[in-house]
Amino acid sequence: MREPNALEASDVEWHNWAGDEGCRPAAIVHPGSIEEIAAAVGRAAREGLRVRVAGAGHSFSDIACTDGLLIVLDRFGRVLDVDSDSGLVRVQGGITIAQLNARLAEHGLALENLGDIDVQSIAGAMSTATHGTGARLRNIPSQVVGLTLVLADGSTLECSQERDPELFRAARVGLGALGVVAEVTLRCVPAFTLRGIDAPAPLLQTLDRFEEIALANEHFEFFVFPHCDVALTRTNNRTEEPPRPRGRVAEYANDVLLTNHAFELFCRIGRRLPGRIPEINRLVTRMAGSSKRVDRSDRIFASPRLVRFTEMEYALPREHTTEAVRRVMEMIERRGFAVPFPIEVRTVAADDALLSTAAGRESGYVAVHMYHGMEWRPYFMAVEEIMDELDGRPHWGKRHFQTAETLRGRYPDWDRFQAVRARLDPEGRFANAWTDRVLGPVGAAVVQPPPATP
Q1: Are 224 and 343 in contact (CB under 8 A)?
Q2: Cα angle, residue 112 at apex, residues 157 and 387 outer, rounded to 5°
Q3: pTM, to two decimals
Q4: Does residue 182 contact residue 149 with C-beta atoms inside 8 Å?
Q5: Count of CB atoms within 10 A of residue 380's CB?
Q6: Which of 139, 127, 120, 122 is nearest to 176 (CA)?
Q7: Domains in the chain, ordered, with CATH?
Q8: 3-state DSSP assignment of residue 348
Q9: Phi, psi dihedrals of residue 208, rounded to the nearest 5°
Q10: Hey, which of 12, 89, 182, 296 has its CA 20 to 30 A from 407?
């Protein structure tokens, strides 16, 4: 007989957004309060179940998968407090970035830097060091000033720089391995307007001037399709112009019909006829054209992604970014890979979270993608070989083939993180196959870290 308040067994299979990673947990819960999260974690401990957490499921790897208890935060997305004077906003961890953006706008606030996808939960985006772009701007975890963890014994722990700097540096990019991120306090800025310009440019010129362009603009990124010599650049800068939102018809025509439905059709043709992909990529590049938009910041940052794909992304020392792009483009041609998706290139400033992909260094990011239903593994493995040679660190929410052994030397504060993990979760309650592979067992190779630098 099961004990009172035991977890109900589940026969539901959970899948990520891409649909290519899934699991069948022993139990799934959808808590609506911290008390419900704590009770679920406590019951899992009594039943000997390991615990993982899923926000919006937008990670491309098996980071959230478990055969134990899966906590899904889709009912845990409220804004708890807004201080418009200080810009501090406290939210539940399951709120999506899109929901958060809408609520911030109501209070005249915004996040200073965002990625181009807004369906992730704030806890998931923070915990995997999701970043956005801007050579002088830091990632999403750097905008966090406090958070509340539910620990393995069901207790709660408030984390901040003032309370425990070492713990806070670990918890901001905790990979779900320290506890459940229940609440997050963000440092927001007054709402602002961006002028976004999309324009094609010669690829070689863009690569040669990459550092100059990245530093001359608040937000700069570019895309390039394999077999093409044109970069599709995106430059976003603040403006005092009034926002000019697009009408619904224009927005639907561009963001849904052209950017998603037409691209989906081209990808399907490429999947069926891979030999035509170079020709298709050149056609898509010609169709992209130029555009200018002036709108609220989050509307410029994010765009809908309806075409399913999987992704690998690496953070590099910024000076290695263009070399990585050149080598990946050459490798695709040489190896004959059929790749219908572009390579995406961005920059982010350094930060100090222990396992942030930008920890301690100005970083460039190079992302590669593959359309769903197409073989991605050989292509991604070939890309990873290049990234390994350039001191790359894999994005924690995306695909890679690294292990704890190959990653430890890439992070100066690796052992500091492991020491915090061993302190908060000594029994490995928040572990799964992904953490076993990528972080190693709790307590493995933990050495006493040196004193924290001031």
Answers
A1: yes
A2: 85
A3: 0.94
A4: yes
A5: 21
A6: 127
A7: 14-72 (3.30.43.10), 79-190 (3.30.465.10), 194-394 (3.40.462.10)
A8: strand
A9: -65, -30
A10: 182
